[in-house]
């Protein structure tokens, strides 16, 4: 009898990768001075095109759809949704401040309902492609930035919380979801959206609320009712650099995700952790960020379903390079470190990797490490036993 020939190389194809994007989403400016400049997405898209990722055989680009009112109201109060819709049509809504609208963070302008509904729809398309098995991984970079949005009010640039809406649909379909938020800010809106659920494990690793908006995300916020233990927070000290950030990530996140045994991995990939970000104080490099994406990819491959959205990120160069690197990592596309010469959308970019910032002085490094270790010790004490680890 002839023996079967078994190849020693990995027979698996490259991941079927969906990229959900429409360049019109890079045109919506919240206000003249607003730090969230949607043009960041245009630069990212130009860089992805110049690098050739979007031409790869295993990468499909899909256009978003507009989320329906019913989908938005699955996670938001109808009265709040109506106010956003009315303002979007040009109505003046006295008392909109009660809904967090008309503030410097959340200015109002015509078209805001439609633009946000399209962002939500992009995240929904990404989720549907992954949960239906049509893609192994899907990236909707216009999503995630709404992670502070609350059921009945806007917060921190967030109007409708696309992640909560998408994960509610997954839970309704009987799926358990692990949500990992690596944005520099605590993902408070997403945490609240699933605070009493044991079907969604939310993990947010961020600069501590002691120093940064929204002032929450402490280890003691562990969920309530059935959700007790399914809300995990890892607050870090300002100026934490790549190595120390990764040390905490490695200690907390893969063990918890594996113990939870989710059906889907959902990641928010904010890059306002970057050392040049103007709004925050963590000190990651683009290569440090990409290493996170590689680790998330390893978890995603184990689980078999991975949805990724964008998030904060206010340094244009960091956003363009990091999310291009992220898409390349998802698709297992070989990316040269040199930024292609054909990329002219944003000046001054030469390499994808950063020249790292100067190492932290020893006395501050020890304070940073002490703060971060106490976060880990608390998580290990409060959360790990729930998962038998
Ligand atoms: Zn942020």
Structure description:
- Helix content is 36%, strand content 10%.
- It is α/β, with parallel strands linked by helices.
- It has one domain (17-387): Histone deacetylase domain (Arginase, Chain A, 3-Layer(aba) Sandwich), CATH 3.40.800.20.
- It has an eight-stranded parallel beta sheet, sandwiched between helices.
- The radius of gyration is 20 Å and the shape is globular.
- 50% of the residues are buried.
- Bound molecules: zinc ion.
- The site of zinc ion has 7 residues, from loops.
Supply the key terms:
globular; Arginase, Chain A; 389 residues; binds zinc ion; 10 helices
In CATH terms, the superfamily is Histone deacetylase domain
Note the run of SSEs as H and E: EHEHHHEHEHEEHEHEHH
- Could you say which small molecules are bound to this protein? zinc ion
Helical residues, percent: 25-40%
CATH fold name, please? Arginase, Chain A
Strand order of the main beta sheet, please? 2-1-3-8-7-4-5-6
Major sheet size, sense and barrel closure: 8 strands, parallel
What is the CATH first-level class name? Alpha Beta
Quickly count the domains: 1
Distance, first to last CA: 48 Å
- The rough form would be described as globular
Low-confidence parts, pLDDT < 50 over ≥5 residues? 1-9
Total strand segments: 8
Q: So how many helices?
A: 10
What is the radius of gyration?
20 Å
Q: From the 3D coordinates, which CATH architecture would you assign?
A: 3-Layer(aba) Sandwich
Assess the beta-strand content as a share of residues. 5-15%
Structural class: alpha/beta
